[in-house]
Amino acid sequence: MKTKCVWVAILLAAITVFGGCNQGTSGGPGAASPPVKERMGQTEDTFSLTLSSVELNQGQTKTIPVGIKRGKNFSEDVSLKLAGLPTGVTFTPADPKISRGITDMELVFIAANDAALGDFTVKVTGHPTKGADAINEMKISVAKVDTVDTANAAADAATVKWNEYTTAMQVQMDQFSAKYTELQNATAKAEGQVKVDGELKVAEAKIKMDAASAKMNELKAAGAAGWEKVKDGVTQAFEDLKTVLG
Q1: Is the pTM of this model over 0.90?
Q2: pLDDT-wise least confident of 12-21, 44-53, 179-188
Q3: Mean pLDDT of all residues in the chain?
Q4: DSSP assignment of the chain, as one string?
C-alpha cells in the first residue's frame, strides 16, 4: 500500500510539472492543426519557443535570452514578433530572427523613464520560413526605479547605444571588405590600362581600409563610456573609404 501511494505521488508531481509549464504551441511544417502544446520532447519537423520573464525598473535596460526548441529535421529561420508590450518599453533588434542552426538569441528590453507600471503578458510569435507559427507568452513586470539604480540605468542605456553603433559599423566594414576583395580579383584578371588603373585603385583602397579598420579598433576599445568621442573619426574614415569602393 505504501509503495502504491509513493507511485501516485510521483505521478501527480509529474502531471503538475508538465501541466503547469507554459511551453506555448508548436509551429513548423510538422505542427498539428489546430496547434497543440508539447508535453514531452518536440515533435519531428516542429519547433517551440522558450521564454524568460522580464523584470524592469523604469529607465532600465535588460538583456533576456529567447530560445528555440527544434524537433528533428526542423532547421528553418524563425522570425519573432512581440505584441502587447507595456507602453514605454521597446526592444532591440527591431526585427529579431533566430537563424537556422541557432538555438537561442538575446533581446535587449529598454524601459523609458515613464514606462507603464505593472505586470504584463506579451504574446511572442515565432514565424518560420515554412510551416505554421509557434506562439508563447512572456511575462514583463515594470516597477518604479530606485534612486540607487539611476546610474546603472544610464550606464545600461549607453552600452545599448554603443553596441548598436558598433554593430552597424562592423556590418559596413564587412561589406567594404567584400567589395575590396572583388576589386582585387577584377584587377588581377584585367589587362593593359584597365589593370594599371585597377592597381592604383586597389592601393588607394588599401590605405583607406587600414584607416577605417584602425578607427573600428578605437571604437571597440573606447567602450560605452567613450565611444561618442571617437564616433566622428569613425564616420569620416568610412566616408573616405566609400569614395573609393562606393
Answers
A1: no
A2: 12-21
A3: 85
A4: -HHHHHHHHHHHHHHHHHHH----B-BBTT--SS--B--SS--TT-EEEEE--EEEETT-EEEEEEEEEEPTT----EEEEEE-PPTTEEEESSS-EE-TT--EEEEEEEE-TTPPPEEEEEEEEEEESSSB-EEEEEEEEEEPPPGGGHHHHHHHHHHHHHHHHHHHHHHHHHHHHHHHHHHHHHHHH--HHHHHHHHHHHHHHHHHHHHHHHHHHHHHHHHHHHHHHHHHHHHHHHHHHHHHH-
CA distance 185 to 114: 54
Could you tell me if 156 and 60 are in contact, meaning their C-beta atoms sit under 8 angstroms apart?
yes
The x, y and z cell numbers of residue 105, run together, are 538569441
The mean pLDDT of 94-101, rounded to a whole number, is 90
Distance CA 128, CA 115 (A): 31
Please give the Cα distance from 88 to 94 (Å, whole number): 15
The topology under which CATH files domain 23-145 is Immunoglobulin-like (2.60.40)
Residue ranges per structural domain of the chain: 23-145, 152-245
Query: 116-143 pLDDT, tens per residue?
Result: 999 999 999 999 999 999 999 999 999 9
**Whole-number pLDDT of residue 1:** 46
Cell of 19: 501541466
